[in-house]
Amino acid sequence: MRYAYLGPEGTFTEAALRALKPEAPEAARVPYIGVDAVFAAIRRGDVDGGTVPLENSVEGGVTATIAELINGDPLLIAAEAALPVEFTLFGREGATIADVKRIATHPHALAQCRGWLARHLPDAEVFTVSSTAAAAQGVADPGSAYDAAICARIAGERNGLHALAEGVGDRADAATRFVHLVRPQPLPEPTGTDRTSLVAFLSDDHPGALVELLNQFAVRGVNLTRLESRPTGDGLGRYCFCLDADGHVADPAVGEALMGLRRLCKEVRFLGSYPRAEADTELTPFMPTRGTTSADFYEAQEWLARIRAGRID
Predict the structure, then answer these.
(1) CA 188 – CA 86 distance, rounded (Å)
(2) What is the pLDDT at residue 60?
């Protein structure tokens, strides 16, 4: 088995893949430069799966990942991981923080470190690159135009850099959610702590269209944990909605909600039902309202089957 991840070596995504596939040997983890390259490798069958970042607790959704999930040949989310993200400022050996004038990092890392940079390096120029690991590689190059990189500790150390400042993020509790993608295949069995992801494309624009969509979940007691609008690319004002819901498509409430969406929407792209990350399972669990547990749905289905069979006793 071979697995792709957003590279180069030393990215937070590599750490997420290690957490998701701890049994995979080093040679089985293949770095690709760019989220689109990871998706392409999975779709071509060059790898058996791939890990990419999906959203950050500070910056929000990762645009490149969401765009690929919405467009192109469908892939399934088979698993997810939520990792704390800690940033370190690295420079070449012998450098000091006073020497830093030009910094390289990833756009999401920059968004999480703006406050620290404003306080400690207000005159430094910051340049964005494809990943924090690429930033570290760039600084390690003797002819580099950059003096320092904001990256993960593993990336700085792998490239022989020297830590100039630790904990440069503005939020100590920052975390990033990563997803592991595979080509369409049978879904994981329900675990009781699952998440279902999908994209809904509205049939037309009219008052209450979004409310109708959300009601499919609300009336069945399905808790939504994420809702994000994204342009469809078909023109200004045309949007689709990326949703995450508690539960598995095999759960009757979730399954009925998806059937409701299918009746209402122009298109529904199913992205997968998979176990929630451990960080999420530590949250206070959502308590279904009266009449919306799986047992309630099964009892109602059995009652309807008896009615249809002419048994009204």
Answers:
(1) 31
(2) 86
